[in-house]
TrEMBL record:
<protein>
    <submittedName>
        <fullName>Uncharacterized protein</fullName>
    </submittedName>
</protein>
Amino acid sequence: MSTFRSIEELVKSLDREKELLKEMFAKRKSLSFRYDYALEMTEYKEERIRYLIDYGVIRDTGDFLEMEDIYLKFFEDVLEVNEEINVSFVQDYLTRLNENIDYYLKENNEQRKYNYQREVKRCLKNIALTTVRNVMDLKRNMDNTYKNEPNYRIKKTKLFRLDEKRNNIALLIRKSEELIDYGQPTFFRVAMDVQMRNVVSDVKLQLFAIVESAKYQNIPRTIQNVFLNSKLDADFIKDTIVTDL
């Protein structure tokens, strides 16, 4: 497989085939994006399709084409339409945060200390950003499940798993707040310059805003309402969404 050698090369390639990629992304839930349709969209220049395949942007599954997962996830994350709620990312950032704090406290070289401090700030920002996106994804997935899942048993199972995700998000929010407030007192005392103070303040504010959000607090009540009703129809589901969200 070939690889892009620069951002410029990557962006130019994606821009050249933007119509094809836009159509493939819009139909990503379909398993039937035909090769001949893609060929039509590239002016019947098969080498353009082969280029995207060779560079790992799309993959050939016979008569059909699919977007590679790395690009699919990138577009879903950027456009905030991701259906996967991955709380492990926050845990990874917490682990990296503690690691870089430890390195900072053990390092004597000022430049390397600065680099570790900068990485701590980046981890803190990513914790807040990822948590906010997870909550947005959670609400959107719950809403989609209410509206679009016709099988009640599957609906309950999906909602139960979404509720587990909500509990995991809440746990990671508490762990993040505890780490900032109590977990690393030495670091946050000696490394608390103006920029670090602003980052910490922004992160704590974002996490607090998530927990206090009415929509976030209504998620468990909304899920419980569905669990308590063994016979659901479309009107009840719509009423529940309107009332609780």
